[in-house]
Amino acid sequence: MSAPPSQPPRKSRRELIFHDIFLIAVMATLAGCGLIYEYLMAHYAGRVLGALESTLYAMIGLMIVAMGVGALLAKWLPCPFKSFAWLEWAIASLGATALIIISLSISLAFSFPAYLQDIYGLHPSITTDGQVVQGLAKIAKATPFVIGGLLGLMIGMEIPLIARIREQLHGQHLEHNLGTIYGADYIGAGIGAAIWVLFCLQLPVLVAALSTALVNALIGIAFLIKYRAHLPQRKALWLAHLSLLVLLAALAGGGATWMDNMHRALFKDKVLYTKITPYQHLTLTERIIGAGLPKITSLYINGRLQFSSNDELIYHSYLTLPPLLASARQEKILVIGGGDGLALRDILRWQPEAVTLIDLDGEMIALFSGDDPEAPPAISARLLQLNGAAFRDERVEVIVGDAFVEVEALLSAGRHFDTIIVDLPDPSHPDINKVYSTFFYLRLKQLLSADGAIGIQSTSPFHTQQAFISIGKTLQAAGFTSEQYHANVPTFGEWGWTIGTLRGGSASQRIAASEALNDAALSDWLSKPQILAAFVFSPRYFADAKQIKINTLGSHQLYQYHQRAWKQHDGAFFPGQNPFD
Q1: Which residue blocks in 400-534 are alpha helix, DSSP H?
Q2: For a tag on the chain, would you pick the N or C end, based on fewer CB atoms within 10 A?
């Protein structure tokens, strides 16, 4: 009869205290890592898939559910010591490579159609977007959620395994074992959240991922050393962890370049410069359309086109000129958004006394001010030429912060403005919804002079009809005389704006009576007849407007209208069809 396997000697109380301290510290550290992974996956998925907030919430919800499933499955794992060591290796391996896998899948899905066109010599008008290509795109969009689910599943196994290890070391059931472990988990998660906000958001996304994976790998190695007596066959574990360290070093050396190359593959035009700020991913591209013709510079934010230099003048002229024309004076102007300085450039032609601009992203403003230390001088010079070095004008006051908060600060300071221009992103995610609400417009109403005017970027009137009409009705509900107008911007198609006044004639009446556009320096593009024609819509466009709701703070009504238009109809407009059908 073979001898029973030897058991480690019974531990003293002092040894058990040291084991408890080690395991509780490990649990707190892993909880911080788990929360960082959760935020990291949600944050990056939002960047590459768009609709940042909705993707973020979906990813966090998925990972929380997956953690619960992992906690249930952990009881089926054999030997908790061996299982925990392999688990940390697996989490670190997937956490380190997750972003590159996601980037690769998205890049392949986007570049495959162009690859087919090149291979078969197809004319650009012949699209290669059949079922196979669409299938690849669906797989690419699902990849972040698959990886997030796997990470969540494994992270959820950590608490039960550490609880089992602790009881096995004590040799008895511990009455408050789970409470102790969960306490360390909650505290560690809170510390992880602070690390994410204070440090990770300031780092390149891959650096944050690799740093977190390194912590998991080092914990796995420390665990191998401390509990080697409970791991008699550990050669494979050591080999796996050492190989993981080599992988982390390789990714630290070349991963950023690989991801940058894959990011560039998403764009048809040449990528000139890319920058990840704490709030968004900025990408500048260049297109050469022919000898002797100017190069087209475009800005993408989180993969979505924001402007192209060949026709941005159309958009910004319609954004700025009508409200400025409708205002009795143009001395003090407030711009909300517009971090590229293009609206600011057009406003400064009116020779105002002062312009105040509020934008959340200070790094974007630095880029378009020519003050980004990482941007090549040629890029800075190009952007300064594009916006006329507007941010360097001494009349411009820049406030970096959330407009929802900063508007309150302006009110507290007793500030007033002759014209307010709101150039914010489309209401494509819930967080933006608040700055399209009656509450926000009421605050702007208090900032606006009685004979002034407000102009608001209002998304596409034909691709998102309900959202467009809702913005106009929301401004009206806030006490403005509200009107809407539209024009074609070749890069975006049909686009719309909302304009409001407080007293006296409507904006269109004031524009009709204004003589300001007689000065050719104010606009090389728009005339008064063009502007007034933009207020004309098809006869039945507003026929169902009574059914469309205003957007109140917290209702997310506008966000829902915007999402519905793109999800149900892919942004298509159907003349004569009820938008609620």
Answers
A1: 403-412, 430-433, 438-447, 465-477, 507-513, 528-533
A2: N
Give the model confidence (pLDDT) of 106-155 as tens digits: 777 666 555 555 555 544 544 555 566 667 778 888 899 999 999 999 99
Indicate the pLDDT class of residue 535, thresholds 50, 70 and 90: very high
Candidate list 359, 372, 423, 426, residue with the active-site label? 423
* Cβ contact 475:436 at 8 Å: no
**Chain centroid to CA 558:** 18
Clarify whether 423 is annotated catalytic. Answer: yes
* Degrees to nearest 5, angle at CA 423 with 417 and 425: 145
What pLDDT, on the 0 to 100 scale, is given for residue 265?
Answer: 60
**Ramachandran angles phi, psi of 420, nearest 5°:** -120, 130
Q: What is the pTM of this model?
A: 0.75
**Domain boundary assignment for the chain:** 13-258, 311-568
pLDDT at 373 > cutoff 80: yes
d(CA 278, CA 200): 9
Q: For the sheet with 270-276, list strands across it.
A: 270-276, 281-287, 296-301, 304-308
- For domain 13-258, give the fold: Growth Hormone; Chain: A; (1.20.1250)
At a CB cut-off of 8 Å and minimum separation 6, what does 428 contact? 50, 51, 559, 562, 563
CA distance 407 to 10: 66
Q: Which pLDDT value is given to residue 340?
A: 96
Instruction: Say how many C-beta atoms besides its own lie within 10 A of residue 83's C-beta.
Output: 18
Taking domain 311-568, whether its CATH number is 3.40.50.150 is answered by yes
> What does residue 357 show for φ and ψ, rounded to 5 degrees?
-120, 130
User: Mean of the pLDDT values across residues 565-569?
Assistant: 66
Crossing angle of the two packed helices 235-264 and 80-120, in degrees rounded to 10: 30
Cα–Cα distance measured from residue 512 to residue 506, given in angstroms and rounded to the nearest whole number:
10
SS3 assignment, position 157: coil
- Identify whether the C-beta of residue 278 lies closer than 8 Å to the C-beta of residue 205: no
**Distance (Å, rounded) from C-alpha 2 to C-alpha 300?**
70
Residue whose token pair is 């908790």: 80
The model's confidence at residue 202, banded by pLDDT at 50, 70 and 90, is: confident
Q: By the 8 A CB rule, do 535 and 508 touch?
A: yes
Residue 226 · residue 75 · CB < 8 Å: no
